[in-house]
Amino acid sequence: MSLVVKALSKKIQERQILSDIDIVLTPGEIVGLIGRNGVGKTTLFKTIMHQYLPEAGQVIIDERDVDVDPSFYPRVFFLDDQHLYFAQESLQFAVNMAQMVYPEFDAKRFWTLMASNNLGPKQRYNQLSRGLKAYVRIGLAVASGAPYILLDEPFEGLDIIVRQQILALILQEVTDHNRAFLLASHDLDELDGLSDRVYMLKDTHIAGEYDLETLRQHAQKLQLVFQDNVVPEVVNQGHIIAQTGRVFEVVFTNYTETIDANLRAAQPILMEPMSLTLVDLFKLNVEDAK
């Protein structure tokens, strides 16, 4: 069982936004989607849901091509935050509509979640704070019963209390109910500790798929300072992601004994291992684009 995106492509006003996108989302995992502003993350979600019709490609939900059998779409939950159907309505209206779309929608659970923030049926969505609006959206996602949940910037602008509530809900749904989440987010630090895998979207394509724990087994990030500020040739086998004065931060995606020996032979003043993060991968992505 899985949500599979195959060779998905989309143009908007003759501009190519997505090209040959391949993504797999399986139950029981949290997957991140990262990329620079305007790269097409939201467009990808809308195209997966056929809010935008793709020029090419397939969306397959639990082995069913939704072009052939669109009845499987309620197995995927996504809300377009910019065009919410209940933006000017009450939370009861949001629930009534969600029950029409998602056959397994659990209204009792939704209201139980809302009660923890003193929200009731008559509360109007547009009167809520930014954080509580986000909590309502995640509440609808959890209550929907859909096994695959797409969230677009779920942590943006949230205070720490609501953020922790949303994180707890996501982790609970994955652990206890074997659901899958695809999170598009600029909060790379949050995704780093949360995601099982991460897709990098760049220049209309998926530029890479990363499992940070696996990558860390082969990669190495070092803080380096060299005598007379002369950088040895071996550093070119890595990627300089930051420089402050004489201090370099370098990532070697395939760190070998030979690289280690050559670096030590250069007699650096400082050679300090550092933790490799998702932010570092994003920086590598940006540097490769230059």
TrEMBL record:
GO function terms (MF aspect): ATP binding; ATP hydrolysis activity
Cross-referenced SMART domains: AAA (SM00382)
SUPFAM superfamilies: P-loop containing nucleoside triphosphate hydrolases
Gene3D superfamilies named in the record: P-loop containing nucleotide triphosphate hydrolases (3.40.50.300)
InterPro entries cross-referenced by the UniProt entry: AAA+_ATPase (IPR003593), ABC_transporter-like_ATP-bd (IPR003439), P-loop_NTPase (IPR027417)
Name listed for the protein in its UniProt record: ABC transporter ATPase
Protein source organism: Lacticaseibacillus saniviri JCM 17471 = DSM 24301
PROSITE patterns: ABC_TRANSPORTER_2
Keywords: ATP-binding, Nucleotide-binding
Domain ABC transporter: 3-228
Coiled-coil boundaries: none
